[in-house]
Amino acid sequence: MTARIGVVTFPGTLDDRDTQRAVRVAGAEAVPLWHRDKDLKQVDAVVLPGGFSYGDYLRAGAISRFSPVMESVIEQAKAGMPVLGICNGFQVLTETHLLPGAMLRNNHLHFICRDQKLRVETNSTAWTADYETGQEISIPLKNIDGRYVADERTLDMLEAEGRVAFRYLDMNPNGSLRDIAGITNAAGNVVGLMPHPEHAVEPLVGTGRTDGLGFFTSILKNLVGAR
């Protein structure tokens, strides 16, 4: 039996179908999860996909954090279940405090959509094991509230503990402090990033590359190896 990876849909989620496809391309079973349902349907991992949940009212991810499904996601993440937050999903993870810091409006105050070069800073997480530390990848980026911020103490802690997962290369597209594009929790099971790996899993669409597929093959191997 293959791994079952849940993909949550909130009102305003845009990339749930793309994420489900990426899961299937990697060889796992994609399980749709509805935001009002606490039941995680016995999935092995969860992805919070991109979009504009609840229209980003109040601030991005602030309302989704209180959706019934998140009660179960928070509980299971703290127990070790792998969770990936992509773009809006990363924003939700910071709102739940599963990941430290916060996401603010891009420093140039404009929506940005481009292929973005990243450096993999660690492959010691459930979602990055199929990459090499230091590897450079290119995946799509699309956001307006993508500026990662935290106080200096938190930033120093992330750096010292090897918890910066990805860093922007060539240009910082949104003013994120220390060029941070994604981070992980201390256990390595929860990862959040602003760029969209689900849009770079097949050569005919997205960037024309498959640089994002490693997220989904990493978690599949992690889950199969744990059984």
TrEMBL record:
Catalytic reactions on record: L-glutamine + H2O = L-glutamate + NH4(+); N(2)-formyl-N(1)-(5-phospho-beta-D-ribosyl)glycinamide + L-glutamine + ATP + H2O = 2-formamido-N(1)-(5-O-phospho-beta-D-ribosyl)acetamidine + L-glutamate + ADP + phosphate + H(+)
For this protein, the Enzyme Commission number is 6.3.5.3, 3.5.1.2
Q: Catalytic center at which residues? A: C87, H196, E198
Query: From which source organism is this entry?
Result: Streptomyces flavofungini
Q: Where in the cell is it found?
A: Cytoplasm
**For this UniProt entry, what is the primary localization, expressed as one broad class?**
cytoplasm
**Record-linked NCBIfam families:** FGAM_synth_I (TIGR01737), PRK03619.1 (NF002957)
State what this protein does.
Part of the phosphoribosylformylglycinamidine synthase complex involved in the purines biosynthetic pathway. Catalyzes the ATP-dependent conversion of formylglycinamide ribonucleotide (FGAR) and glutamine to yield formylglycinamidine ribonucleotide (FGAM) and glutamate. The FGAM synthase complex is composed of three subunits. PurQ produces an ammonia molecule by converting glutamine to glutamate. PurL transfers the ammonia molecule to FGAR to form FGAM in an ATP-dependent manner.
Q: Annotated pathway, please?
A: Purine metabolism; IMP biosynthesis via de novo pathway; 5-amino-1-(5-phospho-D-ribosyl)imidazole from N(2)-formyl-N(1)-(5-phospho-D-ribosyl)glycinamide: step 1/2
Q: Which UniProt keyword terms apply here? A: ATP-binding, Cytoplasm, Glutamine amidotransferase, Hydrolase, Ligase, Nucleotide-binding, Purine biosynthesis
Write down what this protein is called: Phosphoribosylformylglycinamidine synthase subunit PurQ
CDD domains for this protein: GATase1_FGAR_AT
Q: Which SUPFAM superfamilies match?
A: Class I glutamine amidotransferase-like (SSF52317)
Task: Share what the entry says about its subunit structure, partners included.
Answer: Part of the FGAM synthase complex composed of 1 PurL, 1 PurQ and 2 PurS subunits.
